[in-house]
Amino acid sequence: MSSVLQTIFALPLRALTWLGGQGTRAVAAVVFVAMAVPPLGVLLRPYITEAIFVLLCISFMRVDLAALHHHLRRPALVATATVWTTIGVPLIVGLIAHVTGLTSRSPGLFLALMLQGMASPMMAAPALAALMGLDATLVLVTLVASTALVPFTASLFAGLFLGDMLSISPPALGLKLSGILAASLLAATLIRWTFGAEAIQRHKKPIDGFNIIILLAFAAAIMGDVASELVAQPLFTIGLAALSFAIYFTLLAVTTLLFRRIGYERALALGLMVSQRNLGLMLAATAGALPPTTWLYFAMTQFPIHLAPYMLMPIARRFTARAVTSGTAPVSSKPGHVL
């Protein structure tokens, strides 16, 4: 009986290990699978919050405590990155939208861009940074700090730029964010205490594979209607996709240049985080009650989020190799270290 059970559990473990070994290729494939199977999106849409919780739990579970201590000794860097992603980005987006007249020409798209700018970094950002060999702990620390501020900054910018277009309750959003963070941190702590950090490191590949499956669930929940919209209005849908790529890589490039003095490897990690906005929390906060254009743009943002890590792998490897050679790489980026 025990051998049968071992065989039964060994099969999914091998499958997860194989999937985790695909790295950013699997992350890139997620978006196409999600778009190709619309019924999966319909089935998973009610579970967006749960998917976000699991992604953050995996990130907390795999945090590098040594690198975390290192970054906490340099709070100025985390504070600067947090101010940029929570205040700088939405302020610039709102000002540009008003100057260009987007607020009156396309209210649905303006709402989408403002919600994107106001959102905290995506919960999967540390895991994606780890897949790319970047400093995932710096990303995680900044993500937690910025997520804690979002209830206040989102309310502020909603009042400044959105008016009656959207009503966000800071207490309700703050309670939701606090609950997700506290519960995921507690669950991750229990897992680390039960199995140990060494066991988590040994099972890096299957954990990566499980993380990719959760990414698929989240992407499918958002992208369920993309295929039908592409058939119904192809030019508009492709235009939104192009815009999502342009905004993603603009945020990535600007952030990397702003923080280049800390080293391009760490700056790229921050750029990856800033360009991946957690639209899932905004969907949860609004209960999905958004205009069709806003919802469609949110779906289009999944393309750069999942494809960019694969596209950026050569640059990430070059930056990481340069940092290791010069001795400036963080612990989590050095060869032989597993997050």
From TrEMBL:
Transmembrane segments annotated in the record for this chain: 75-97, 109-131, 138-161, 173-195, 207-224, 236-259
Gene3D superfamilies hit by this protein: 1.20.1530.20
Keywords, ordered alphabetically: Membrane, Transmembrane, Transmembrane helix
Record carries keyword Membrane: yes
Protein origin, superkingdom: Bacteria
Tagged with keyword Transmembrane helix: yes
Name of protein: Na+-dependent transporter
Species annotation: Bradyrhizobium cosmicum
Taxonomic classification: Bacteria, Pseudomonadati, Pseudomonadota, Alphaproteobacteria, Hyphomicrobiales
